Amino acid sequence: MTMKRRTFLGAAAGTVATLSAPMVLGAAKPRVVVIGGGAGGATAARYIAKGSKGAIDVTLVEPSRTYYTCFFSNLYLGGFRELSSIAHSYGTLASQYGVNVVHDWAVGIDRDAKTVTLAGGAALPYDRLVLSPGIDFVDGAVEGWDVTAQNKMPHAYKAGSQSELLKAQIEAMPEGGTFAMVAPPNPYRCPPGPYERVSMVAHVLKERNPTAKIIVADPKPKFSKMALFQEGWGNHYDGMIDWIGPDFGGNSVSVDPDAMVLSIDGEDTKVDVCNVIPAMKAGRICEMAGITDGNWAPVDGRTMQSRMDENIHVLGDACAQGDMPKSGFSANSQAKVAAMAIRSALTDSKMFPAKFSNTCWSLIGTNDGVKVGATYEATEEKIAKVDGFISKTGEDAELRQATFEESVGWYAGITSDMFG
Question: What does 189-231 look like in DSSP terms, one character per residue?
């Protein structure tokens, strides 16, 4: 056995207590541990527990007692939602579905012993492990910025306190001030997310600070729903938003958080708020488990099993699976496929061919909603796009309002699907 097959942090695994019931020959239930309580992990835990009707012991490891969805957090920034409306707890998963919810950090995985080490000093044994840890940021992705600077230049790409901080900074901007965003390179969580955020910031500033300016430094020559956003910015926020792509230096960016300076292709600009969204990678536990290839964890889309360990399934933002975007809808869809595969493997229940879907809604202005989406199927090589759709420029106000209202209904539905 090599070190690649094991990861330990902290105390040696041999000294760590094990959270498990006493083994009784012929009576032990198969055990599934799920790490990460977001759209992928919470859904997987619920569907495995519910679908197995108690035949599988399910433990969900999530450090936060209250989970804030990244999707719809931009609407909080724009004043269309309260923070409490995107906050969710795990009580129903525990009380109605029998999921053992453990609020702790997973800090190591021993793939040979099939145990997860927790920061609190315990170890959880598993027969199957589900990793849905979301994203972390690539060190050094934006010159001058790292996570120690997130209170001065927040990323707000993990919702909650960062969202509150960014909202407070926006509302405290001086009259005629400058909001700057450093947009991320592909691939990243929620492809339309940065540009919906720009729209929501512009909405707030138009009402509170109409002479303010927005600068977007973007390393990409194009982005998701680009024509729709640019049309909307012209309609709602004409002259307020300056998008700077790579042709004009958007891929040559540095920041100075102490001086609140953004440098684009060597030209310094003093800013009042700077939202830095760095390049992303799979949540660190995937790297610690030794199942990443580059920044992401490759999987077999037919079961969402890791390409490096058949006993591990990886969901959502953290996985490299093919054509699906990294979104909450995608994670929820993938979790159902993984749950079915796990139940089939551990209880011999029926397995059906994997099918997936995704839609990403974005709000540009009041009742001005747009969307993009697709359906997918699993092949031996990847999750492959079958067909897709996208809103069109020039749509009437009634259709755009209906699209926004559809997104509100979807949010209620998916969060109920995740948390019960």
Answer: BSTTHHHHHHHHHHHHHHHH-TT-EEEEE-SSS--TTHHHHHH
pLDDT digits (tens, 9 = 90+) for 157-203: 999 999 999 999 999 999 999 999 999 999 999 999 999 999 999 99
Residue 361 φ/ψ, nearest 5 degrees: -95, 150
Strand partners, 376: 356, 385
Per-residue b or e along 107-123, where b marks 16 or more CB atoms closer than 10 Å to that residue's CB: bbbbbeebbbbbeeebb
If we measure between CA atoms, which residue out of 244, 414, 217 comes closest to residue 316?
A: 414
SS3 category, 105 = coil
CA 284, chain centre distance (Å): 13
Q: Which domains does the chain possess?
A: 31-137+280-350 (3.50.50.60), 147-276 (3.50.50.60)
DSSP-based three-state secondary structure for 293 = strand
Q: Global pTM?
A: 0.92
Considering the chain, what percentage of its residues have pLDDT values greater than 90?
A: 93
